[in-house]
Amino acid sequence: MKHLLGIRELSAEQITHLLDTAESFRDISKREIKKVPALRGRTVINLFFEASTRTRTSFEIAAKRLSADAINISVSTSSVSKGETLLDTARNLQAMSPDCIVIRHASAGAPYHLTRVCDAAIVNAGDGSHEHPTQALLDALTIREHKNGIEGLKVAIIGDILHSRVARSNVYLLSKLGATVSVAGPGTLVPREFAELIEQGVRVEQRIEDAVADADVVMVLRIQRERQTDAFFPSMREYAVHYGLHPNHLSLAAPDAIVMHPGPMNRGIEVSSEIADGGRSLILDQVTNGVAVRMAVLYLLAGSEHAELPSVHPGEDDLESRAAGGVRGRTRHQTRGTRN
Amino acid sequence: MEFTEKARIMDDARINRALARLASEIVEENHGLTDLVLVGIRRRGVPLANRIADKIEDLEGTRPPVGILDITLYRDDLSTVGAKPIVSGTELPGDIENRTIVLVDDVLYTGRTVRAALDQLIDFGRPRRVQLAVLVDRGNEHRELPIQADYIGKHVPTKKSEIIKVMLTDFDEDEGVLIVERPAAEAAA
Asked: Which of A199, A256, A300, B38 lies at a 20 to 30 A Cα distance from A336?
């Protein structure tokens, strides 16, 4: 695996390996010295064309905890604001020999575009309404931590499914790992003909109560007002009444159900404060796990040249011989093109 | 990858005797168990550390705490390893500040594993003293760093084309130490 463009391209085995690796990185953030030398001398560029605090900071902390040099470029301070194209920006960054470029862009497919001109490992930190793979991975790590696994769980995803890259990545991931997913939201934001999700075995519900019933995990999504060019529902107040998650909804879920939200939250609209700050809410655990997941992703992509797991010779302390396995070339993952 | 077995240099009984001797040397050198912690280097250093701790308990009536070091993130050859390096995590039994640490590994060869283990250990605290115990020492002529063991189960002079293969029933079907020949293509590389 050279790039992380989306969950759709990953196998269940690759996802599990990423989660297992992330689990071991979680401990590093609890140490007094929160730093290991694994990516010393590597350069990670965070190229953010959309506003982000949580994800960009999380990638920056992850890179720094692995001893990589992290450089942040946001669109307002980059040459993009002077009219430079994404391709030219990418070519210029490539000329500076980064090992990894983390990109967030409003257009689906932008990270894939970068793989065609850059040698660096490309990590999708959210591309339009397409995918947000590290968010799905951190959600999965959080679920696994609290539910001891994902297979057989019932997960309800509530809200603006249509515009949500988080929902899409989560549907792919949770389905691949054996969970049953139901989505619910206003008909305009979860159209019944959402064939792509139904292909994944997802149940599309119109009523939040139907999706939440007996759910082990309830994921609430943010209303993405910035992506909504049409009026998808009459008013925020009406949305809050019909699709906001309230304690009466949660009483329909499994008794030990957990609540998640990718943030930032619109309190009182998609989720009540009572739930957001309640004992079942894992919203801050998700943020903590985000650093561990991003450390795992950077470590596995930026730290290694080769694509085959080496065989470990028993009884040999020589690092070279521990590493000596068959060496294949890098594997480029294909993804679909721009959706917008 | 095909390996050719050249010699079996230790069987289960000899491994057991070597570990008993290491346990007794560790107790003698440290004048007992005060502040002693055994730390095994993943993977095979861990069962070896546990077995030495059991033998120390037989001798002294008290079992020293045993920790686990995973040095994967401290390796200096990350770019040459596979794309799916396995990170298994480090577990130390409490504070190591001012304690005597005995690092335990199966084979001492170039010394780079021990260098990585020392780097990691220092990130967790400042031990008073760090010692090294290995089941097999391949000899100073292969060392790439100024590192040597304090306790050695067996000294085995080897050629670079050879590999010491330690098998423990914790991970393998058989128990013993073999000298095996690297495949010709790899040895020539």
From this structure: A300
Better-scored residue on pLDDT, B54 or A269: B54
pLDDT at residue B120 in the model: 93
Residues near A196 by Cβ (< 8 Å), separated by ≥ 6?
A168
- Residue A98 preceded by cis peptide, ω within 30: no
CA-based torsion, A232, A237, A238, A244: positive or negative: positive
How near does any CA of chain A get to the CA of B111, in Å?
8
A339 and A128 in contact (C-beta within 8 Å)? yes
Interface A-B: count of C-beta contacts within 8 A: 129
Which two structure tokens, joined as six digits, stand for A127?
A: 């591309």
Q: Does B84 sit within 8 Å of A317, measured CB to CB?
A: no
Structure tokens given for B116: 């990585």
The answer to whether A310 and A323 have CB atoms below 8 angstroms apart is yes
CA nearest B166 in A: which residue? A315
On the CB side of A171, CA atoms within 13 Å amount to 26
- Compute chain B's Rg from CA coordinates: 16
Q: Which of B55-64, B81-90, B122-131 has the least mean pLDDT?
A: B81-90
d(CA B165, CA A312): 11
Q: Do A314 and B172 count as a contact with CB atoms less than 8 A apart?
A: yes
The verdict on a CB contact (< 8 Å) between A316 and B112 is no
For the beta carbon of residue A143, count every other beta carbon within 10 angstroms.
28
Which residues in A lie closer than 8 A to residue B89 (C-beta atoms)?
A: 23-24, 27
Specify the amino acid at residue A310: P
The alpha carbon of residue A115 is apart from the nearest alpha carbon of chain B, in Å, by: 18
Q: Which residues of A touch B67 (CB under 8 A)?
A: none
All residues of chain A having their beta carbon less than 8 Å from the beta carbon of residue B167 are 314-315
- Mean pLDDT for each 10-residue chunk of chain A (340 residues)? 93 95 90 91 93 93 96 77 82 92 94 92 94 97 96 94 90 95 87 76 90 96 68 77 88 95 88 91 95 96 54 37 33 30
Q: What pLDDT was estimated at residue A77?
A: 66
- Contact status of A41 with chain B (Cβ, < 8 Å): no
